[in-house]
Design goal:
It contains six helices and no strands. The chain is mostly helical. It has two domains: 6-101, no CATH class; 103-159. The longest helix has 44 residues, at 104-147.
């Protein structure tokens, strides 16, 4: 019986980690210059250091990894001697990665989007309130400059 390719053993653990990365509960190991640290990734997944070669060699591993890296702002991995720009294939995978990971990551991201939209609405309301107050204070300051004195708009309270 033929032995299963090594990438088939690595892929399930990689997909689990990438799902957690997209859900925001885990991070991809990165180098100081913003690239995926493949050696640390292999160690994080619990494989031997020598297994890092498979991430460069097999598209089944580097395509989902590069797609997730693009989603979190890291540079894609490339074999030595190739340029570091994302290919159209990587960009297409980035769009479909949540579906590839069983759909649960997509649902997690959708839930996050709902929370973010609610936060944006609250911040917009706060910004509108602060902008209104700023306009009111600008008008009051212009009146002070014009008249040379402050007009009391609020009622005076006896102490």
């Amino acid at each position: 019986m033929a032995r299963k390719p090594r990438w088939e053993e690595i892929l399930p653990k990689l997909e689990g980690l990438l799902g957690a990365v997209l859900a925001g509960t885990a991070e991809l190991p990165a180098t100081d210059d913003g690239k995926v640290n493949v050696l640390q990734l292999v160690r994080k997944l619990g494989f031997k250091d020598d297994d890092r070669q498979y991430f460069y060699k097999w598209a089944e591993l580097h395509k989902p990894l590069n797609a997730a890296a693009a989603q979190v702002g890291l540079a894609p991995i490339r074999p030595r001697g190739s340029n570091g720009s994302a290919t159209p294939d990587d960009q297409a995978n980035a769009v479909f990665l949540p579906d590839r990971l069983g759909g649960w990551a997509h649902k997690e991201l959708e839930g996050e989007n709902v929370e973010l939209r609610a936060r944006v609405r609250r911040l917009e309301q706060e910004l509108n309130a602060v902008s209104s107050e700023c306009e009111r204070l600008k008008k009051r300051f212009a009146l002070i400059q014009e008249l040379g004195t402050d007009l009391r708009i609020e009622p005076v309270h006896d102490l």
